[in-house]
Design a protein that fits this description.
This protein has twelve helices and twelve strands. With 330 residues, it is α/β, with parallel strands linked by helices. It has one domain: TIM Barrel, CATH 3.20.20.140. The strands form three sheets. Strands 3-5-6-7-8-9-10-11 form an eight-stranded parallel sheet. Strands 1-2 form a two-stranded antiparallel ribbon. A two-stranded parallel sheet has the order 4-12. Helix 2 crosses helix 3 and helix 5 packs parallel to helix 6. The protein binds zinc ion (ZN). The site of zinc ion has 5 residues, from loops. InterPro entries: Metal_Hydrolase, Phosphotriesterase. It comes from Citricoccus parietis.
């Protein structure tokens, strides 16, 4: 496979030059699929809400979001494709498994009886599409949180690494920043022969720890400053990082010359079974957690603090283009 100048989206193949300004870590919905079977929601109301929010984000100049919703988070690609068509927002979709500790039974038992099952499963989704939809994921996702590299988490990371090398499709991670899980992920990916410049280590901007950021950057990966709008640290409310500190980190990293390795996002969603809209409205630290926070607040603040428009364009346009314009399998 030669150089790849096209990228798959929920609604078909586009040139990487058509990605435009891209938010690299978002979700349309994060759900528990079984819960939704037993407790159905108002599908039309939810879709309409998503269409409205993503159309608003697109009006602000963001033309693509990367939806990192994978197994464990209730991925539903026909729904995402419909929302993309109706909102005009291009959506790159992912495959992978989101777990902090144990694999879902389906993956665990199949991997036990047929080692390599999970990597093959990921490759098949990328090459042939998901189910009968024809929709092909264009990025792999794995996650490591406070439990660290459990046996099952390691299986996911190694499976993602192998599927990445067989397809060339890039990798994006959830990595608990305070326990420096990004470095542990890089170590395993490197053991699998992964070129770390084709990996986005997520959630590095969750903590005001430039040393951690620079260690991840030194090994060549992109870093995700990808939870803007949250002023608690993801699921770890005790590690509070207010927005002004998150912006200060971004500004300082640009000043140190790292704009070519940074990507941004909110990691938000229209609705989540873990933090519902009702909960979000009353939870401290989440009032700004919405699409458009980057465009309305973060970018203007970075500009006001001396970050050049060239660096902003590098982060929002050029880096996503480079991540998806990959060099193929290796
Ligand atoms: Zn996420």
């Amino acid at each position: 496979m030669g150089d790849q100048h096209t990228v798959e989206t929920a609604t078909g193949t586009i040139s990487v030059d058509e990605l435009g300004a891209t938010s690299m870590h978002e979700h349309v919905f994060t759900l528990n699929a079984e819960l939704r079977i037993n407790y159905p929601w108002d599908e039309e109301e939810m879709v309409a809400s998503a269409v409205e929010q993503l159309a608003e984000f697109k009006e602000r100049g963001i033309s693509t979001i990367v939806d990192l919703t994978v197994y464990g988070l209730g991925r539903d690609l026909p729904r995402v494709a419909r929302i993309s068509r109706e909102s005009g927002m291009q959506i790159v979709v992912a495959t992978g498994v989101y777990t902090f500790r144990d694999l879902p039974t389906f993956f665990r038992l199949n991997e036990m009886s047929r080692p390599g099952f999970i990597a093959d499963f990921f490759v098949r989704e990328v090459e042939e599409g998901v189910g009968g939809t024809g929709i092909r994921p264009a990025i792999f996702k794995c996650a490591t949180d406070t439990y660290g590299i459990t046996e099952d988490v390691e299986t996911v990371i190694r499976s993602v690494a192998r599927a990445h090398r067989r397809t060339g499709v890039p990798i994006s991670t959830h990595a608990h920043a305070a326990s420096q899980q990004g470095l542990a992920q890089q170590r395993i990916l490197e053991e699998e022969g992964v070129d770390l410049s084709r990996v986005v280590i997520g959630h590095v901007g969750d903590i005001a720890d430039l040393e951690y950021a620079e260690q991840v950057l030194a090994r060549g990966s992109f870093i995700g400053l990808d939870r803007f709008g949250i002023s608690i640290n993801g699921m770890h409310a005790e590690e509070a990082t207010p927005t002004d500190e998150r912006i200060a980190i971004a500004v300082e990293l640009c000043r140190r010359g790292y704009a070519s390795q940074m990507v941004m996002g909110h990691d938000t969603n229209v609705e989540s079974d873990s933090i519902t809209r009702e909960q979000r409205a009353v939870m401290p630290g989440l009032k700004d957690w919405r699409f458009t926070y980057i465009t309305d607040e973060v970018v203007p603040a970075m500009r006001a603090q001396g970050v050049s428009q060239a660096d902003i364009d590098q982060i929002l346009i050029e880096n996503p283009r480079r991540i998806f314009a990959h060099g193929g399998a290796y």
